[in-house]
Structure formats: structure tokens, C-alpha cells
Specification:
It is elongated, with a radius of gyration of 23 Å. The chain has 181 residues and is α+β, with helices and mostly antiparallel strands. It has two domains: 36 residues; 142 residues, Umud Fragment, subunit A (Ribbon), CATH 2.10.109.10. It is built from two helices and twelve strands, in the order αβββββββββαβββ.
Amino acid sequence: MSDSPASNETGFVRFVGEIVLMIGLAAALAFAIKTFVVQPFVVPSGSLEPTIAVGDRVLVNKFVYRFESPQRGDIVVFSDPYGKLPALIKRVVAVGADTVDIHDGHLWLNGKELEEPYVHGKPTEPGTIPMPVRIPAGYVFLMGDNRPVSGDARFFGPQPISHVEGKAFAVYWPLTGLRGL
């Protein structure tokens, strides 16, 4: 039996169709993962230094907050309240029903000075919003670890949890800084 030109052509068309289908499925899967599960994010500022540096690439779990609320200490990516950047990254320092205040260069939470080893002794100065501030239910108070250079909730106030895009869980670039958060 010899291959006819028609069967060769049909085989080639099938092969090309399968390749196109596989590329389409791979693109759809990548889009779904990035949209709903895990997304890479480039850190735009030094507000979390030295925990995370400018230009570091982090992975953000976009799925976790469908089942639980952000917790104190989580590092989250959220919508820029000023709309200048696609997103910002900060640490959750207070959640709904907490009261935040600043005294003598230290952050106070619910009447007690908060231990914050991640600020490395840098002072926390008041911003432009009046203190103390009680965090409404469904909101979080987000601050950078590098307080002297962080434009954070001291200036833009508590943010709705609905603006939180996900929880940063790992630095994946540069490779020398590969680690969990």
C-alpha cells in the first residue's frame, strides 16, 4: 500500500491542527494559573527592604484569600490606592477591629507595642492620617518594613480586603536570593 498525496496532506493538516490545539490549551492553562492561582510580581519599591529588595521577583498566591482572610504578618500584593502602579506590596500589620497607633517611633497595636523584628530598628513615624485608627471589618492596615521610605497606610489609610490580590510566598529572582517568605 502506498501513501497517496491526499492521505499525506490529511496527516499534515491533522498534525498542524494538533499543534495549534496544544499551543492554545497551554496558553489557556497559563492564563488561568496566572489569573486565579499563582502570579509573578516585580517589587517596585524599597518599602520592604531588607526583607524584599527593589526589582526582586516574588510569587503571589492568588488563591489563598478565597478561603481565609489576610493575617497580621502576611506580605500581600494589593491595588495601588493612588492608581500610579499596577500593584504594591506591603506587610499586613493590622486587621479588622484592631486599633493602630504610633508612639515614640514604634507601632502600637491594640494598646501594646508591636514587636517588629523585620523593621530592623528603623523608626515608625506618623503619616498624614490621624492616629489612632481603628481598622473597620473587611479592611487591613498595610505597612512597609522600611518605614522611613514606605508610602503606606499611614498615608492612604486602611485598604479593603477586596483590593488585596494575593499573598507573596517566595522570592524566585534573583536566584541568589531564592527563598520563602
